[in-house]
Each structure stands twice: as C-alpha cells, then as structure tokens.
Amino acid sequence: EGGIINEYNKLLDVLTMKADGNYIGAMDAISLVDASLVTNEKFQSVYGALNSEFTDSGVQNLYVRGKGSYDGKDWETARVYFAKCLELQPDYPEVIFYMGVCYQNLNDWGTAVSYYNQLIDNEVYSNTQWGQEAKRQRGY
C-alpha cells in the first residue's frame, strides 16, 4: 500500500474509467496518482498524456461531451458534463446558458432561472448572444 504498485493500479483505474465512458471519474481520479513514485518511462508517458488531456484540454473535452449529450437531448448527462465544466471554469457563459436549458428540460424551472439570471444580471453577459438567449428563455 502506498507504493509503486498502488500508483499503477490508480493509473489503471483512470484508464478503465475513461474506457468505460466515465470521463469525469477519470478526470477526478488522475489527481490521486502520485507519478513521482514511479520512474518507469511507459508509466510516465501514459500518465503525462492523460494528465495533459485532463488539465490542458479538460474543460473543452467536457464541453464537447456535454454538447453532444445536449444535442441528443440527454439533459441529465449534459448537465453532469456542464456542471463539471463550470466547476473548472465558472465564467463560461455558453455553458451557463446550456445548464439553464438542461434544468428547464428536466422540469426544474427554479434552477433553470438561476442559471439564466446569471447571464441576464451580469453586465458583461446581458447583451451578448447568451444573455439575449437567456432573456428569451425567461420570456423577456
């Protein structure tokens, strides 16, 4: 426990989650791997590629996955991806709007309105495309 084999197992868990379609779980689990304990070149290569994917492109990958679910009207899955996206980048007006639509389609109007209001009440966003769309959804 706490040794090299443990780190290999953690990395395998990350790969398994990603292969099983649990991108968010894999993204969260990569932070549990202590790559400094393992000097093996292949391990470092795999770890480096995954870590880079999750940190450098993580928000964009979450957005793409969320948007795919959104376009397929899978509101709950889209909501999960968009929520993680906003956790990493809270200032993403397009995703804020899509969260409102997801909640609206999940019949949670109160939460939908709170997302729409984040755009409507923010001077930076209120006159942008996403602020205008939020106003339209609210019936303004």
Describe this structure as you would to a colleague:
α5 packs antiparallel against α6 (93-105), α6 packs antiparallel against α7 and α6 runs parallel beside α8. The termini are far apart. Helices cover 73% and strands 0% of the residues. It is built from eight helices and no strands. The mean pLDDT is 94. The chain has helices at 4-19, 23-29, 41-56, 58-71, 75-88, 93-105, 109-120, 129-138. It has 140 residues and is mainly alpha-helical.
β content, as a range?
Answer: under 5%
- Categorize the overall geometry: elongated
Mean pLDDT: 94
Helix content: over 70%
β-strand number: 0
Low-confidence stretches: none
Structural class call reads: mainly alpha
In short:
Helices cover 73% and strands 0% of the residues. By secondary structure, it is mostly helical.
Keywords:
0% strand, mainly alpha, 140 residues
Question: What's the arrangement of secondary structure elements?
Answer:
Layout (H helix, E strand, L loop, with lengths): L3 H16 L3 H7 L11 H16 L1 H14 L3 H14 L4 H13 L3 H12 L8 H10 L2
Helix pairs in contact: 1-2, 4-5, 5-6, 6-7, 6-8, 7-8
